[in-house]
Design a protein that fits this description.
The protein has 11 helices and 16 strands. By secondary structure, the protein is of the alpha/beta class. The chain has 2 domains: about 170 residues, Quinone Oxidoreductase, Chain A, domain 1; about 130 residues, Rossmann fold (3-Layer(aba) Sandwich), CATH 3.40.50. Strands 3, 5, 6, 7, 8, 15 and 16 form a 7-stranded mixed β-sheet that branches. Strands 11-10-9-12-13-14 form a 6-stranded parallel β-sheet, with helices on both faces. Helix 4 crosses helix 10. It binds zinc ion (2 copies). It holds the Pfam family ADH_N. This is Alcohol dehydrogenase.
Length: about 325
């Protein structure tokens, strides 16, 4: 079978790897679609994604597909089942898993490297999807589950004002979740006019530039600020514009070499709570339910549908990644 590898030194290669049968409780899945994630780009650029990277590694972790075979210990899946994957393995036994926090599992590793014709996750990482949900949309399960975890942490109260930075793929999902949370007013901060338009289409009340949000922040209390970019400048501004008693969620993945700064005294007088969010503990089933409900628009977020081979050039140029979500078709089934 074919698989798309980051082999180190800014190089991506599609390699032939042997296909095998599933063992123990593994589910063999013919991958239909896999999203290209910002963390794949980080890995390609020689930084770490959510974990330390030692190439060669198969990229991709946001996949959906159809079960073709199950291991002898599988109880819940059969060939033909349509499924989405949670790529993040939790052993269920270590002290972190015992506390319900598999995102910190001592042996956590990726179990669904979706830039591959087949993946073999254990069944605890596999989620059935309803017939009405197409496989391309189902491949949004992982990014959506991460966004759900982030919003779980800050618990948006209905009627309050939320500012959100960045209409990339993750911001576009986050915006829709914030809308569903019952926020009273959502202001999206985005430099590109085209993406500000998209923000309005996906439920923002207002879409402004980073200069404009400064003024707005002085006029009204921003109760929540959610940053989905990860640039030093926007993270620092997100903390600076937050209002009194505000919660700030730094969701965008920052540069490990670039710590951010903020004025502690100002944050103190506003009694700010600053959150970060790591992965997706126990939120995949909810992500599937939301996608099945049709309340999350993914079509408007997709900027390109590319083959496994075409990803090499995309990782170099980021032509479509700058505009939205790149979806990789493996089997391309729906
Ligand atoms: Zn991802
Ligand atoms: Zn564990």
């Amino acid at each position: 079978m074919k698989a798309g590898y980051y082999v180190g030194d800014y190089t991506y290669e599609v390699r032939e790897v042997p296909e095998r049968s599933p063992e123990k409780d593994e589910v063999k899945i013919r991958v239909a679609w896999c999203g290209l994630c910002g963390t794949d780009v980080h890995k390609f650029q020689g930084q770490n994604g959510a974990s330390v990277v030692v190439p060669p590694i198969i990229l991709g972790h946001e996949c959906s597909g159809i079960v073709t075979e199950v291991g002898p210990e599988c109880e819940y899946f059969r060939p033909g089942d349509r499924v989405a994957c949670d790529p993040s393995y939790g052993c269920g036994k270590c002290s972190w898993c015992q506390q319900g926090l598999p995102n910190f599992c001592k042996v956590r590793h990726g179990v669904a490297k979706g830039f591959s014709e087949y993946v073999y996750p254990p069944e605890q990482n596999v989620y059935p999807i309803a017939d009405g949900l197409d496989l391309k949309t189902a491949a949004f399960t992982e990014p959506l589950s991460c966004a759900i975890h982030g919003l779980d942490l800050i618990q948006i109260e209905s009627g309050k004002t939320v500012a959100m930075y960045g209409m990339g793929a993750i911001g576009s999902l986050m915006l829709q979740l914030i809308r569903l949370s019952g926020a009273g007013k959502i202001i999206v901060v985005e430099r590109e006019a085209e993406k500000r338009q998209l923000a309005l289409e996906l439920g923002a009340d207002l879409a402004v530039t980073d200069q404009e949000i400064e003024t707005i922040g002085q006029q009204e209390n921003l109760d929540y600020v959610v940053e989905c970019i990860g640039l030093t400048s926007t993270m620092e501004q997100a903390i600076a514009i937050a209002g009194k008693n505000s919660k700030v969620l730094l969701f965008g993945l920052g540069d490990p070499q670039q710590p951010i700064q903020f004025n502690q005294f100002e944050a103190y007088t506003k009694e700010l709570s600053i959150y970060t969010s790591y992965l997706n503990p126990h939120t995949s089933a909810r992500a599937v339910k939301l996608l099945e409900s049709g309340q999350i628009n993914t079509e408007k977020i997709i900027s390109a549908e590319l083959s496994l081979e075409a990803i090499g050039e995309e990782l170099q140029q980021l032509t479509f990644s700058k505009k939205g979500k790149v979806m990789v078709y493996l089997s391309g089934e729906n």
